[in-house]
Amino acid sequence: MKIPYNWSKVDRGDIISFQYRGTNKRLLRRTVLVLEKKLDGLLHGILLEMSNKIINNRVNEILELAGETKVVDSKKKVYRVELSGKTKDVYKKLKEVIKKYGIYRTFKYEKAVRSQVFLEDLRLPIGFVEELNEN
Q: What's the structural domain count of the chain?
């Protein structure tokens, strides 16, 4: 269950969702692991879900490569990632997965903030979630 959030609080490692009208003119809800909130006027991130559908079933792998996954709210299944290192370092770790699935995205920040933002719940493998809740 997603948690209403505020754009001013969004930070690197947050897993957020917002509605965004892409180049195809369709307004879609996108769930993104934030790598950089506002760099050159762009929000940089890894696309995890589109319209609440998982892009690929290796989300936990992506999170593990990016850094250490932390529980924000276990009941609502909301997590964030303590990114390991600077954005470029995280990108290098994720490079193979990004190339394979084409999941790196940038969004015009000014356009993105017009939408309400949420900390998004993720459907993760049960074993992975149990491990997170133990820590």
A: 1
